[in-house]
Amino acid sequence: MLKSKYNVPKNIDKRISKLQLKIDSNNSYIDFLKKYNVVVFDTEVNFDYCIDCDGESLPLEVILGFSKESREDLLATNDTYLNRIPENYFAVATLNYGDLLCLSPNGEVYYWDHEVNDLYFDMSVKNGYLEQNTNLKFVANSFDTFLSMIIKSEVEDDYDPDKDEYNNIPFPDEALPSMLKYSKVFFTASENRLKIYLKKLELSEKGREVLAKFKEEGLL
Q1: Which DSSP string do the residues of 27-39 spell out, in sequence order?
Q2: Which pLDDT does position 167 carry in this prediction?
Q3: Residues of the chain above pLDDT 90, percent
Q4: Nearest by Cα to 33 from 152, 150, 143, 109
């Protein structure tokens, strides 16, 4: 099921040594980096790769490694989310349109939901933040266990926008660059899904910029 997008860098050991991961706790992720480096799931049109978390099926996007593409690079991603994920946790995958899977210091895998766990400004206090929810959902007791949870399934065209409770929530800004980069894949979504995706883009300023780019490319 897993297919590396790139060749593993020749200096992979040197790169890994700079990550400051606890070797004993994160052996399985280190082994993954040495074997696969980066695995991308969200470019296949007819299939989803998902994991289950508390009964919710979450579509995987990328298992992070070393890449020149920021959305695939573990260093760039962890830099982006510095102080937004709990201290000593390390992002290793992206999923569910703006969420993360993180390794704990003990090597367990947890789900960081941007709607629940992100850091938000407190508009009532100058330069203040709301109290952050750092209670991430448990996914697996190891990275290997997480890999064994991945399920490949054919995409079904039964999506009903009227039943989507998130149809009035915009896509997070972090998810938008990949939509532009893989615009052709974006527009292979079923008619019903595409309708709600376009509606969600209209809900934010940066989302509307993406729509403008789509129009420039003749996709809309």
Answers
A1: HHHHHHHHHTS-E
A2: 65
A3: 46
A4: 143
Tokens, residue 26: 């994160």
Rounded Cα–Cα distance for residues 163 and 145 (Å): 32
pLDDT of amino acid 121:
65
CB 59 within 8 A of CB 154: no
DSSP letter at 21 equals -
* Structure confidence by residue, pLDDT tens digits, 116-138: 998 776 667 677 677 888 899 99
In sign, the C-alpha dihedral spanning 103, 109, 112, 117 is: negative
Q: Rounded to whole angstroms, how far apart are CA atoms 185 and 197?
A: 13
Per-residue pLDDT tens digits for 62-84: 999 999 999 999 999 999 999 89
CA distance 110 to 117: 12
CA dist 156 and 55 (Å) reads 19
Structure tokens at 141: 């007791």
Of 7, 75, 78, 14, which Cα lies nearest the Cα of 36? 7
Q: How far is CA 172 from CA 11, 24, 34, 143, in A?
A: 34, 34, 31, 26
- Alpha carbon 136 to chain centroid, angstroms: 15
Query: Please, what is the Cα angle at 114 between 61 and 208, to 5 degrees?
Result: 75
Q: For residue 101, what are the β-bridge partners?
A: 93, 111
Taking the complete model, does pTM exceed 0.85, yes or no? no
